[in-house]
Specification:
The complex is a heterodimer of chains A (about 325) and B (about 325).
Chain A: H1 13-35, E1 37-38, H2 40-57, E2 104-107, H3 113-122, H4 162-176, E3 182-187, H5 194-205, E4 211-217, E5 220-221, E6 224-225, H6 226-229, H7 235-241, E7 245-250, H8 254-259, E8 270-275, E9 294-295, H9 298-315
Chain B: E1 2-4, H1 7-18, E2 22-26, H2 36-41, E3 46-48, H3 53-65, E4 69-75, H4 76-80, H5 84-92, E5 99-103, H6 120-124, E6 131-134, H7 138-149, E7 155-158, E8 164-166, E9 180-183, E10 186-187, E11 197-201, H8 205-218, E12 223-227, E13 230-232, H9 237-244, E14 249-257, H10 262-272, E15 279-284, H11 294-300, H12 305-319
Helix pairs in contact in B: 1-7, 3-5, 8-12
Classes of the chains: A alpha/beta (about 325), B alpha/beta (about 325).
């Protein structure tokens, strides 16, 4: 899974992730233009991270989910109907019996749903046509995801809980002697929550070196820049003081992302801190950030339409190129 | 009425022995939650989660996803108040089989309002997919874990500790969703004569009520006494029959706020079934309570034997 590995298509894993990330941004601009808004800045900061997680960073095994958007009833009960589980797309079978050697992926970043769906398309786990149902009433491609949404194993929208669930799974893997790792995607804004830190201190105490959190440090949260709302610096030192190993990477560099889980962290959980830019890849957003949700209006519509053409040129066809 | 100790402690050991996937999570209240026996016998299945209840509840969801059956133990008040969102979104939303054991329900602690779970049933009854059990005696303490194990989803148990009365000795063990009829301390199938008053009690209030019921029956008052230990789902056939046939009215008697608990659930049932009878709800009035001994608190908040006697007399007087 090294970034330098050449694929049969002659592109490195890093190159494929880069192209997939551009396609994810493009899909999100299309969604924004169609629905009148989207979590676009999250797509910009997180595209490479999410694509990398599905394309080599974690060993999830093949998707077990349906390739199309699924209708959901009034109560999407994933216990009663395991075929609705978003974790199917992360390789977890409907009966819950994951493979001991495979990795698990928990996405706490509920606002990254459209980024995740588009990344699933790029990783060959979802048909491109599914994206037409994003945000549609009665379908499972929610704008803010829950456990019935592709790629999501939990209802992560109340922040702070999913990393504790992931840690519980990592703990269970240790108890069962399973070698698989448990990844959890967080964002820096979520780290305002006390529960994340409750979890971090216990995960360190338990020595869960199979737990890897990936933090999209895009420096923005709901109302503005994190350093204005609630500063997190020095984030790396905070993790270290909580007993974690940590590594900073450029969150837009697929090769760094692919290598990061291999960083030595014996006996300790690992935090991969991804420095990112919430306007990365869509220059039209530079004047808008920080912006938790980009509303499309007359003032920015033409800029976003122009961004589409630019992303078109850079993304190319990557569908089916996933790991 | 016999008092017993270590009912939960023994029940947990038997439960753990029967189910190797059972693990116990403690938020630094192991001594106060009768967990030391388990901790000693099964140290590899006992986890110190620290004083961090939110993480503990969500962490349990992760363990449950991997086939473990976590028993999450602390004071009830710290579960439903502090970790309410986690109970909802980490557990109930995914209907995960985690057993939440909430100790010192209602006024059964001398440590005051921060420790008194006075509105847990009211809050938790609104949560979809959650089952709620309220133990009333040592037999129910012994059976609650096994009953919860059979539920396909999260269960909250209001658990008793220390000296616990044995009311249902030698009769049917705890059965989820099934209320019990008391007749002078013995259970029987159906009442022989239409009661003037139906008394519906739960938790420690059932034991508190027994001498009152015996005294009033000796005076000629016809009382049907139903003990309820499953508060969600609520309203089994026995309870409905007792409510429908009360001549003068109904008294609910609970170790909980009068808002949202047994009394409220009974009121909902009465209206839904078109049973037009007076209802008196005895319980903690809509207030936070003082700290103190149980007899002092029951007396202070109008929940002692005298208050129950007055309520029953009141209904009989109104109905005649």
């Amino acid at each position: 899974m090294q970034g330098q590995d050449k694929t049969t298509q002659g592109r490195t894993a890093g190159e494929r992730i880069r192209a997939a990330a551009a396609a994810v941004r493009k899909a999100n601009v299309e969604i924004a233009l169609r629905l009148g808004g989207a979590y676009l800045t999250q797509a910009c900061s997180g595209a490479e991270i999410v694509c990398a997680l599905y394309m080599g960073m974690a060993d999830l095994g093949p998707s077990l989910g349906p390739r199309n958007a699924q209708p959901v009833g009034s109560d999407p009960d994933t216990a009663a109907d395991p075929q609705l589980r978003g974790s199917l797309y992360n390789g977890v079978p409907a009966d819950g019996g994951a493979s001991p050697e495979r990795d698990r992926l928990f996405i706490s970043a509920c606002h990254y749903a459209t980024t995740v769906y588009a990344a699933l398309v790029e990783a060959g786990r979802l048909d491109a046509g599914a994206l037409e149902h994003v945000g549609e009433d009665g379908y499972n491609l929610d704008i803010v995801a829950a456990e019935h949404s592709p790629g999501y194993e939990t209802a992560s929208g109340s922040l702070g809980q999913t990393v504790s669930i992931a840690a519980g799974v990592a703990h269970a893997y240790k108890l069962k002697g399973w070698p698989g790792r448990v990844f959890c995607l967080l964002t820096d804004g979520e780290l305002n929550e006390g529960q994340d830190w409750e979890c971090f201190q216990l995960a360190a105490k338990m020595g869960l070196d199979n737990l890897i959190v990936v933090v999209d440090v895009n420096h923005q949260q709901g109302e503005g820049w994190t350093y204005d709302i609630l500063p997190l610096d020095p984030l790396g030192a905070r993790f270290e003081s909580f007993g974690w190993d940590r590594v900073w990477v450029d969150g837009h560099d697929p090769d760094q992302l692919l290598r990061a889980p291999g960083v030595e962290h014996a006996g300790k959980p690992l935090a991969i801190l991804c420095e990112t830019d919430p306007a990365h890849g869509i220059p039209a957003l530079e004047e808008l950030v920080p912006d938790h949700f980009v509303d499309v209006c007359d003032g920015n519509r033409s800029l976003l339409e122009a961004a589409l053409a630019d992303l078109d040129a850079r993304s190319g066809s990557t569908v089916g190129g996933g790991a | 009425m016999r008092q017993e100790t270590a009912a939960f402690s023994s029940a947990l050991l038997a439960f753990a022995e029967a189910h190797p996937e059972v693990v116990t999570l403690s938020a630094d209240l192991g001594d106060s939650c009768e967990l030391i026996g388990f901790r000693t016998r099964y140290p590899e299945r006992y986890f110190h989660m620290g004083i961090a209840e939110q993480n503990m509840v969500s962490w349990a969801a992760g363990l449950a996803r991997e086939g473990f059956r976590p028993v999450v133990c602390t004071f009830g008040v710290f579960l439903y108040r502090r970790a309410l969102d986690q109970i909802e979104m980490s557990l109930a939303s995914s209907r995960l089989p985690v057993i939440l054991v909430g100790f010192v329900p209602g006024l059964t602690t001398s440590r005051g309002r921060t420790h008194q779970a006075i509105n847990d049933v009211g809050v938790l009854r609104t949560i979809p997919k959650l089952t709620i059990i309220d133990c009333g005696d040592a037999t129910e303490v012994a059976g609650a874990l096994e009953a919860a194990y059979a539920v396909d989803g999260p269960v909250y148990i209001r658990m008793l500790r220390g000296c616990v009365p044995r009311i249902f000795d030698g009769v049917a063990p705890f059965e989820l969703g099934r209320s019990r009829e008391l007749d002078g301390g013995l259970e029987r199938g159906v009442s022989e004569q239409e009661p003037q008053v139906t008394l519906v009690s739960s938790s420690i209030c059932t034991a508190e009520a027994l001498p009152v019921v015996a005294k009033l029956r000796a005076e000629g008052v016809r009382i049907r006494h139903i003990h309820v230990s499953t508060l969600k789902p609520f309203g089994d056939a026995l309870l409905l029959d007792a409510l429908a046939n009360a001549e003068c009215g109904i008294v609910t008697y609970e170790n909980h706020s009068v808002v949202g608990g047994l009394g409220s659930a009974t009121a909902e049932l009465l209206l839904e079934r078109g049973i037009a009878k007076p209802l008196i709800r005895l319980g903690i009035p809509d207030t936070y309570a003082q700290s103190g001994s149980l007899p002092y608190l029951l007396s202070t908040y109008g929940m002692d034997a005298a208050a129950l006697e007055d309520s029953i007399h009141d209904l009989v007087a109104r109905g005649s």
